[in-house]
TrEMBL record:
Chain ranges passing through the membrane: 32-51
Residues in the signal sequence: none
Residue ranges, compositional bias (Low complexity): 77-96
Protein name: ATP synthase subunit b
Entry-linked PANTHER family: ATP SYNTHASE SUBUNIT B, CHLOROPLASTIC (PTHR34264)
Length: 181
């Protein structure tokens, strides 16, 4: 029982303070519905002009930002389309340059092959001419050697075959032939 008496003595002063009169309680956890309605009403009444002005300014800022974003989006779209067109032109030009390069490479290759064929023919002709001149030179040298060797053999045999008596006979015959003329 003593515990009940102790609890009653602690709660009694709080109950007494609540029943003393009318007042606003700013403790939101303990406030009642009436206090909340009064606070909201005061905020609406005094804050309506300020809040309305701020909301209108914010709305205007948002609308301006949206218009600016739309303008930037249109500008970016136009720039993108222009850049895509330039890219397409560049790709077409690259294809054209590549085709011209391939054509030039083929014609250069053909020209090089033709020039190489001409050079081969010229080198063959030069080699043939060089071989002919080498052959002529070798033939001349062989003739000279054969002539020299024949002369050496004839001289060697003549000195063996021709003695003084035969030489005198030849000289006499040569003189007789010259005298008969």
């Amino acid at each position: 029982m003593e515990a009940f008496a102790l609890l009653a003595s602690e709660v009694a002063p709080e109950l007494a303070s609540e029943s003393e009169g009318f007042g606003l309680s700013f403790d939101l956890l303990e406030s009642n519905l009436v206090n909340l309605i009064i606070v909201i009403g005061v905020l609406i009444y005094f804050g309506r002009g300020f809040l309305g002005k701020k909301l209108a300014e914010r709305r205007a800022e948002i609308e301006a930002a949206i218009k600016e974003a739309e303008a930037r989006q249109k500008k970016a779209s136009a720039s993108l389309a222009e850049q895509q067109q330039k890219l397409q032109q560049a790709q077409n030009q690259a294809k054209q340059i590549r085709a011209e390069a391939e054509t030039n490479a083929k014609s250069a290759r053909e020209a090089i092959l033709q020039q190489a064929a001409k050079d081969v023919e010229r080198m063959k002709a030069a080699a043939q001419q060089d071989m002919s001149s080498q052959e002529d030179r070798v033939m001349r040298e062989l003739r000279q050697r054969v002539s020299a060797m024949a002369m050496e053999r004839v001289e060697t045999r003549l000195s063996d075959v021709l003695n003084d008596e035969i030489q005198n006979k030849l000289i006499d015959q040569s003189i007789a032939l010259i005298g008969d003329r």
